[in-house]
Specification:
This protein is of the alpha+beta class. About 30% of the residues lie in helices and about 40% in strands. Strands 5, 6, 7, 8 and 9 form a 5-stranded antiparallel beta sheet that branches. The two termini are about 35 Å apart. The N terminus is likely disordered. It catalyses: 2 pyruvate + H(+) = (2S)-2-acetolactate + CO2.
């Protein structure tokens, strides 16, 4: 990843950080949140936004590569935004992260059975079939999806579409519980 400044440039000490940000569901809030990363020179690796179980509140999941102190500064600046309600950095050891992929693969009469066996092996799903291709839907960790793509590569991967990563903490507590406690 390239960055506009040395503050956000990846180094040996920089790592991926997953932030879960609760925001008021108002126009422009996503722009303001992503602009903070841009101003600090960070490239956002993944960004996903959706409604929560609380009316008027959305959840933004941001994954960015940064050094610890630089990410602390971004978090402090995010906390100052009016529409930001709560920020939690998720620890990979205590959270679940998933991405959705749609993968179009060449699959004709000669290789369709082999492709379908790979799909079954990875617990993926075929969501569209044509005479010369199939579209596969899979949800999982980055390593699982990479392994699936490697297995499908010999058959001819024609197209890939992926969502941003979504993440949630393990256990009974939720970020919205923490918001309600305020």
């Amino acid at each position: 990843m390239s960055a506009a400044s040395t503050a956000g440039a990846p180094s040996a000490a920089s790592t991926m950080h997953t932030l879960s940000v609760l925001v008021e569901d108002t126009p422009g809030v996503l722009t303001r949140v992503s602009a903070l990363f841009t101003r600090r020179g960070f490239n956002i690796h993944s960004l996903a936004v959706g409604p929560t179980d609380t009316d008027g509140v959305s959840r933004i999941t941001v994954i960015a590569n940064a050094e610890g102190r630089a990410m602390e500064q971004v978090t402090k600046q995010l906390n100052k935004l009016v529409n930001v309600l709560k920020i939690v950095e998720l620890d990979p050891a205590t959270s679940v992260e998933r991405e959705l992929y749609l993968i179009k693969v060449h699959a004709d009469d000669a290789n369709r059975t082999a492709v379908l066996q790979i799909v079954d092996l990875f617990r993926a799903h075929v969501v569209d079939v044509s005479p010369s291709s199939v579209v596969i839907e899979t949800v999982g960790s980055e390593s699982k999806v990479r392994a699936l793509l490697t297995s499908l590569e010999p058959y001819g991967v024609k197209e890939i579409v992926q969502s941003g990563t979504v993440a949630i903490t393990r256990g009974p507590r939720s970020i919205t519980d923490q918001l309600k406690e305020k």
